[in-house]
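Supplementary Methods. Inverse-folding protocol.

Structures were first reduced to a discrete structure-token string of length 138. This string, shown here, constituted the complete conditioning input.
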């Protein structure tokens, strides 16, 4: 797998991958999420590809205090082959290079396999509650 920054030509494959991985939920329009990301730290939106096929994605962010990870996805037929680890290491290095001291991410509490995956990368469950407020309806 080769890793590079997202390009607009990737959009259809990326959205299909997110659907295949169960990341698209009614309250999030993936096209709007991509458009928003391209306006803020687009260099932290990475895709992993084998030939012309997008098999992995991750959206990183850094707002000056903490880094964030969103939309980590690996095509189901390519999971458990270290592609998730590779794209995470790539985005972590980019976020760290911006001076970020810590990365946060959110996982649905019912997604035990993904929690174990992130723990294997050194992430820990913290005693905090994630909260959100919708400012725009997608």
């Amino acid at each position: 797998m080769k890793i590079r920054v997202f390009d607009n030509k990737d959009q259809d494959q990326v959205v299909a991958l997110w659907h295949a991985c169960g990341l698209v939920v009614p309250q999030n329009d993936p096209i709007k999420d991509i458009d928003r990301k391209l306006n803020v730290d687009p260099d932290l939106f990475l895709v992993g590809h084998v030939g012309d096929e997008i098999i992995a994605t991750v959206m990183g962010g850094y707002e000056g205090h903490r880094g964030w990870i969103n939309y980590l996805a690996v095509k189901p037929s390519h999971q458990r082959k270290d592609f998730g680890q590779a794209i995470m290491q790539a985005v972590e290095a980019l976020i760290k290079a911006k001076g970020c001291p810590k990365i946060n991410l959110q996982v649905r509490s019912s997604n035990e396999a993904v929690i174990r995956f992130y723990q294997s990368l050194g992430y820990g469950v913290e005693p905090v509650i994630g909260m959100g407020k919708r400012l725009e309806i997608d």
